[in-house]
Structure formats: C-alpha cells, structure tokens
Amino acid sequence: MATAFAAAWETHKRANEKIAAMRDQLIAGLETIPHSRLNGDREKRLPGIVNFCFEGIEGESLLLHLDARGIAASSGSACTSGSLDPSHVLLALGLPHEVAHGSLRLSIGEENTPEEMDYIIRSVTEVVSYLRDMSPVWEGLERGEKPHLL
Amino acid sequence: MLYSEKVMDHFQNPRNVGKMEDADGVGEVGNAKCGDIMKMYIKVKDDIITDVKFNTFGCGSAIATSSMATEMIKGKSIDEALELSNKAVVEALDGLPANKIHCSVLAEEAVKAAIEDYRSRQQ
Fold first, then answer.
1. Chain B neighbours among A 40-79 (CB < 8 Å)?
2. What angle do CA A135, B49, B108 make, to 5 degrees?
3. Where are the alpha helices (H) located in A31-135, listed in sequence order?
4. Using CA atoms, how far apart are residues A62 and A74, in angstroms rounded to an integer?
C-alpha cells in the first residue's frame, strides 16, 4: 500500500513540475503585456492556474475572441457570472471594479505543451491590443484622464 | 449557443469602430463598475448623420449592440435616429439573453447622448 502511494506521489510530483514549468512560461509571457497584473502570489500558487487582469478591457470579450482561436479560458467578469458584479475574490484582493472586469483565468494540464503556451501568449497579446484600440476606458487611461491602476 | 449568429457577427466584425477628431456630436454613457462603457461619435450635415463611429469597453453584447446601433442610425436624419429604441436593436440582432438586454439600452442611450451633444453645440 505504502509502495503504491509512494509511486503515485512520484508521478503526481513529476506531472506538477511539468505543469508548473508551463505555468511559469505562461506567466512570464503574459507579464510582458503592459498594464497587466498576475493575481495571487507568484510562488505560492497551484501548479496549473494562472489568473491575470488586463487594464482597460472587459473579460467576456477577451474570452470570446480566445475561444474563436481555439483557446478555452474563463473569466471572473460580471458578464460571465450572470450578475453585474465581477469576481468577489478579485474585489476582496483589493482590485477596483474596472480592473476586476478585465480578468482572465487559464488552467493548464499535463496534456498541454510549451508550444501551446506560446500560442496562448501570442493570442492574448493580440486580442488585448485589439480590444484596447476600441476601448474608451483605455483611451482615457492613455490620455492621462485617469491614472493607470496597473 | 448563448449568442445569435448576428450578435457573434457584430461582435467579431464590428462595424464603424473608431474615433473621430472632428465629430459634430460625442456621447459617452455607462460606467466601469457595471462593466460597459460606450462612446459614440457622429458627423452631421443638413440634419443627416453622415458618419458615425464607436468605441466600447464591454462584453460581447455591448460591442454587438454598439455596432448594430451605429449601422441603424447611419444615413438617417437626427429625428429618425432619436426614434431608435433598444428593442429595435435587439430585434435586429435576432435577440439577446435576458441579462444582456441592458447593453441594448446603453446603445440607445449612447445614440441619444451623441445627438444631445450635437444639439447643444448648435446653440
């Protein structure tokens, strides 16, 4: 019994290392997007979850565009929750409403590959830029009408 | 599927996206707390809306309703554009989920705000 558990634990640890490496690759890539923020602690986090906020855009739009590109993600945005409030967790972390509305949550599994991480980084970068170009909120931030929060 | 084909079309290929430096009327409605903000620009000549552009921060419905609303007022007279109802926008999009109807209301308000701004400049 103990042997079986030890073997299972080894497999689990190796899988987590592989997943954590892809997670870190994803974080490093998404962090290069300006005015973005990784939510939660960088080290003390689950191996397969990444949660980001991108200033000036709304989460559901980001999700729909990523879905069209074959990337399934989730968001803590109000629109995806069916209520008018964004993620209560992000709000509890102290993020203002506007920023919490622009959140993206990705979960990685063993079947994912580093190439897919690169594809996700490229896609998110493109979609965030596209949505910012059509966002009056982003325009206001860039013009200095309101200070950047991220 | 949550959204109709028309909504997805207007979301993925929004019409009249952009800004206008020399607009005759600009209307901005909504607030970031609710998660939807629409800014509409109109160009008016001889009482006809000759050009319209929009910028929107919001969900799929917000972008789709803004896009559809701009298409519906382009080329219309100011008075005709003022008659645009959110119901007409929703119908033109083949319907919206119940919790997204407020986006169409915002689109109607954006049109009215742009026209009000235009009118106030005429005084």
1. 56-61, 64-65, 68, 77-79
2. 55
3. 59-68, 78-81, 88-92, 97-100, 114-133
4. 10
CATH number assigned to the domain comprising residue B24: 3.90.1010.10
- A53 is an active site residue: no
Interval A30-69: pLDDT, tens: 999 999 999 988 888 888 899 999 999 999 999 999 999 9
Helix (H) / strand (E) element for A144: namely none
Count of structural domains, chain B: 1
Q: Are A68 and A130 in contact (CB under 8 A)?
A: no
List the strands of the sheet with A103-107, edge to edge. A36-38, A49-54, A103-107
- Catalytic-role residue among A79, A89, A91, A137: A79
Query: Which residues constitute the domain of residue B61?
Result: 5-122
- For the whole prediction, is pTM greater than 0.90? yes
B-chain CB neighbours of A59 within 8 Å are 59
A98/B contact by beta carbon, under 8 A: yes
Between strands A49-54 and A103-107, the pairing is: antiparallel
